[in-house]
């Protein structure tokens, strides 16, 4: 075989049958196929709204089907979504339910504000200084395992069936769990941040105020958002004992007359207020700490 024949064979193999050079051909980028379920992916606002609508629609559909296929007797104790929404509308229109809602909101937010004023500084100090944690840690750990509802008889003896006992119960329901969460949030601040501040000559108080608190603030806000949800779960317990107003009191009065639609309307109202509270805390966090939400 001559040298020219060998050279032609090499050129033909490199260029391919169609005469294009496979060596010089640039690869074609194929974007990955969009999937609905991706690990830790953030859906677009439109898709998130669609998902939320589908979830709510499925919930109310199952609820309606459960009511429809119940017997006539059971339907009285398991009202449909329309009946519950009608009862909720009637409460606002004819029963001055707005005053009860505002009273419950006052109890939750006032008691939680007091708990946060104590828990956040205590948790920051315990998470920053081991000596403070050694001093307060055993007390906080022990009180976390005491159910807040067990204090109801004692609170009634001390304060009577008034707002003070209800605020105290809501306060005890979250304070010690919130301290423990803030301690964990503070200890999660990287040691490199603290060491860098001390190396540059910052005092302990300066390190706490300018390094530890800003670094832990987003996680602390998230802990506050989660724990105020616990306050809402304690609300009915706080208001069923000797209360004359509030959502829990309305539900208890309805229970005496087997008005299940009003009871479920109260439950639905607490859920709506809980969602509003969650959105409120998320909005405050985004506005006050925008650096924590940058990707």
TrEMBL record:
InterPro entries: MetI-like, MetI-like_sf. It is a multi-pass membrane protein. One of its GO terms (cellular component) is plasma membrane. Pfam families: BPD_transp_1. GO terms for biological process: transmembrane transport. The chain crosses the membrane at residues 48-66, 78-98, 105-129, 141-160, 167-183, 262-285. Belongs to the binding-protein-dependent transport system permease family. This is NitT/TauT family transport system permease protein.
